[in-house]
Amino acid sequence: MKRLVFVVALLIATTGCAPTFNYANLDSLLRAGDCIGSKEMIKARQADYGSHAQLLYHLDNAMIHYQCGDLPTTAAEFSEADEMAQLLWTKSLSAGAASFLVNDLIIDYPGEDFERALINLFSAFTYIRQNEFDSALVECRKLNTLLTEYNDQYESKNVYKEDALGRYISGILSEMDGEYSEAYIYYYEALRAYRDYNAAYGTPTPASLYADLLRVAGPADRRSEAKRLTKGYNGSVLPHREARRKGRIVYVHLNGKAPMKVEDKITHIGPTGPISIAFPRYVTFPVACSESSLILTDESGLTTTAQAVLAEDITRIAVKNLDDRKARIWAKTIARAVAKQVAVHAAAKEIEKEQGELAGMFAQLAGQVAASATEKADTRCWRTLPGEIYLASRFVEPGEYKASASSCNGLDTYLETVSVKAGQTVFVFNNTMY
User: Would you indicate the residue range of the signal peptide (predicted)?
Assistant: First the structure.
């Protein structure tokens, strides 16, 4: 019976395979602006993700449609991914035993904590682009509670326990609704989160956030507290009443590529055969241009420039998030290697009793080779994310503006023409991921 269980276990082990989706081809299509080809490719190659990584299919499909401007499909795909991620995360809390004797690739990929949170952030961006601001705020609120729920499950807490940009966007959306007390709370929480960002990722607090907090402190009746929280900030602050007479343009720039996971594997040749442990690490991609500015040209030809700042360093968040749970990964990997060896030894002893010492030695060696071969790191990740997000905010006189983005080569790229009214906030998006 033990021998039969051993053979079946090895057969099951061979099913733990990483997705085979060809991201190089997808990147080429997106870099060329071939939206039709990109959509057709991912639809035709859904099976390449494998049955245990369908969450990544929906995330990649959502991002392809996001970049191609098909926003209703984007929203639907993100909604599907959000529901799937929540279900898979709940299941993953009790599914560890399923991968204990094989590898993590035989269980459904639930996404990293930051990946699941970014589903809500990009859903919010999608709704903003469709002028569905109430729905965008709902997504931000979901994000704001998500990470607390996740971190409550860990004995060792992750640094990424709040999303600073998500908090900031929540504040902007609440201020647009005239909910100044709520906006103040979100700006305050964003300020607190950015201080953690600065310590963990080197991402400083955007100066505009200080100004926003101080501006809404008046109608929120929190002036004294706001002054204490922003002590040391010497920038200008547009008074609330004057701000209501102007329009506001918020610039969101997606830049570069998110990192990808690869496998590191250590194999030790013991007296009875190889013993392996495998674990993931991120490989990062250099960013071609790390500067971003929004250029606004009014109807008279007068230009105004708003320097964007790094508001979300997804690359550093990803690397740090994986590093934070390295101890948990190592503990599970080592325990799994030990468990495999115990199973192999027990099965080999059973065969030795039935067929002799030579057969037992052969079974021991074959079992350890199989155990080593089936030890694989979980390198699944959301590959179509940007590496970083920049943000700028500028109050302007009501009117029509041509919005362009500056680049490192000195050339300006036209984005769109926007019309902004007094008391209105308009978002402008830019994408230089490819």
Answer: 1-18
